[in-house]
Design goal:
Chain A: Keywords: Kinase, Transferase. The complex is a heterodimer of chains A (200) and B (333). Chain A has 200 residues and is mostly helical. Chain A contains 9 helices and no strands. Chain B is 31% helix and 24% strand. In chain B, strands 7, 8, 9, 10, 11, 12 and 13 form a 7-stranded mixed sheet that branches. The longest helix of chain B has 17 residues. Classes of the chains: A mainly alpha (200), B alpha/beta (333).
């Protein structure tokens, strides 16, 4: 079952992972962007990890607290989209103490749709949304945390590999569509690395 | 890279503290102190003009809060859009009951956060409209001009919006005239050396010795053409050729010109560029109104410059000449 404690543990793991990932993601972003993805995520995830969710008995409220922490810590597109996803999951679980692992796939699919609407990108543009879409699909029917971790990790890595050699179609990087071929989208890379950290 | 800072995490807040300490006509306000507003408050019955954006570009964005310019501005972290709460706080600080124009650069994070802020403020009865700064000609082709990013030329949109709002126009007219001003501004930049985000281990890009990059974004996003360093006149020509090949449909015979330093490039070199710009525009038969030469929109210590052309019509020229006053720009009739 997914409970507020699950979210507490996940943010702690993600926070630990950022110690190593911060500069790596800054460098990945600097190739075609402004080089701040790692610093931004470290701050956002740090804000989430500082929350105490241990007394929370409403899973929706726990997701909402994470969304507020993200919104308080950044106005960047990636950070704001993360908050959009967390808000979507907060709505889906409002008033319930827990969710089944099999609920995760539809919750992520709804989060993906909310992010598409808010951000204006499309699937296939080579953004974090393509990674999330792959994971939402891969988790369909998955019922245990171990299986969810393994499937999510494989799907996020596969999406990263598939899109690496495709051009970016949105944002500033679309101007360098040719240069973006062979290069990971920093948001997609961050997503895959964080999924791997959570699944480990 | 050597920087005069205390802690990377304090960079934005300590700079803002210093800004308002030096300029008492500005105050820091908002839930997290990430709004700069006019100390005298919003004027009742006047349309508010609000902007916002990432930090690291001073005097842009928040430095242009003042009479005849912005009423309030939300401030993000370095190169990151302002968060939703700061956008809400800035709109409220600018609201004098006649509605608020949100005027900010076309960047994903800024757009999402201002959008969410207006959705929330709808419930409180504050009417808002949006004009996005889209002057960077290197960031999308002319057919996709609405996808362009906002860079130094947004300053002209600030001036026009602030002037017409001061004259007492209603929100719809302020919005329409500001959108027209924005559609008549074109900017191109050139980078000579990078900047480094405080806390990052490396600069945002590297340029080999002797090379420059044309069309670079104000966050160090790669430009369109990398080329060998060249004399200033030749560079000015190259930049003007691009700007003059991309005229608005009804461009007239008058332009305002902004020759802007990205931070490290000294004003001396800007005047060398401007000298050539003036010659070229004279040859083209374009009359220059109110030229601006200096560090108006920077990227911390990035070296380089941008040139903006604002193609005037009669009303826009008149509004450009209206009085305005902030610590970094003042216009007197």
């Amino acid at each position: 079952m997914i409970t507020p404690q699950t979210l507490q543990d996940a943010t702690a793991r993600a926070h630990d992972a950022m110690a190593v990932l911060e500069q790596e993601l800054n460098q990945a972003d600097a190739v075609l962007g402004d080089g701040d993805t790692g610093g931004m995520l470290a701050r956002v995830i740090g804000g989430m990890a500082a929350l105490d969710l241990s007394q929370e008995d409403d899973l929706g409220a726990a997701f909402a607290a994470l969304a507020r922490a993200a919104l308080a810590n950044t106005g960047s597109s990636l950070g704001t989209l993360m908050a959009t996803a967390l808000t979507s999951m907060a709505k889906a679980t409002k008033g319930t103490p827990s969710a089944e692992w099999s609920d995760l796939s539809p919750m992520l699919a709804d989060a993906r749709d909310a992010m598409l609407k808010r951000g204006g990108a499309s699937l296939g543009d080579k953004t974090v949304l393509d990674g999330l879409d792959a994971v939402a699909t891969a988790l369909n029917g998955v019922e245990t945390p171990a299986a969810a971790g393994a499937q999510a990790r494989a799907a996020a890595d596969q999406a990263l590999a598939t899109f690496r050699d495709l051009p970016c179609k949105v944002g500033r990087a679309r101007m360098f569509a040719d240069k973006s071929i062979g290069i990971d989208d920093p948001g997609m890379l961050a997503f895959a690395k964080l999924v791997a950290a959570l699944a480990a | 890279m050597k920087k005069l800072i205390n802690r990377p995490g304090d960079y934005v807040d300590q700079a803002l503290d210093g800004l308002v300490a030096a300029h008492p006509a500005m105050i820091r306000t908002g839930t997290a102190g990430r709004v700069i507003a006019r100390a005298e408050g919003a004027r009742k019955g006047k349309v508010g003009v609000v902007s916002g954006g990432g930090f690291g570009h001073l005097p842009l964005f928040c430095g242009y809060v003042g009479q005849g310019l912005l009423d309030a501005c939300s401030v993000g972290n370095v190169f990151e859009g302002p968060n939703v709460q700061s956008c809400i706080d800035a709109i409220k600080a600018a609201d004098g009951g006649a509605g608020v124009l949100k005027l900010f650069g076309n960047y994903g994070g800024d757009r999402m956060n201002f959008e969410m802020a207006s959705e929330m403020l709808d419930f409180e009865g504050i009417e808002t409209t949006t004009v996005l700064g889209t002057d960077d000609i290197a960031s999308a082709a002319p057919e996709e001009a609405q996808k362009r990013r906002g860079v130094a030329g947004i300053l002209y949109a600030y001036k026009i919006a602030g002037a017409i709002a001061e004259r007492g126009a209603a929100l719809a007219e302020v919005t329409e005239v500001t959108a027209r001003a924005n559609a008549r501004v074109r900017t191109i930049g050139v980078a000579l050396a990078p900047c480094q985000v405080p806390g990052a281990e490396r600069p945002t890009f590297t340029l080999p010795e002797g090379e420059i990059e044309l069309g670079m974004g104000i966050h160090g996003e790669p430009g369109i053409w990398r080329t060998q360093m060249m004399p200033a006149d030749q560079l000015a020509d190259e930049m003007l050729n691009r700007l003059l090949a991309d005229l608005p449909a009804d461009a007239g015979g008058k332009v305002s010109v902004l020759v802007n330093s990205l931070g490290a490039t000294p004003v001396e070199e800007l005047f060398i560029l401007y000298r050539r710009v003036r010659e070229r525009l004279d040859q083209e038969g374009l009359q220059i109104v109110q030229p601006m030469i200096g560090p108006y929109v920077t990227s911390m210590e990035m070296a380089g410059a941008s040139i903006s052309l604002f193609h005037l019509d009669e009303q826009l020229e008149d509004l450009l000449r209206d009085p305005a006053d902030c610590p970094f720009w003042s216009v007197r009739r």
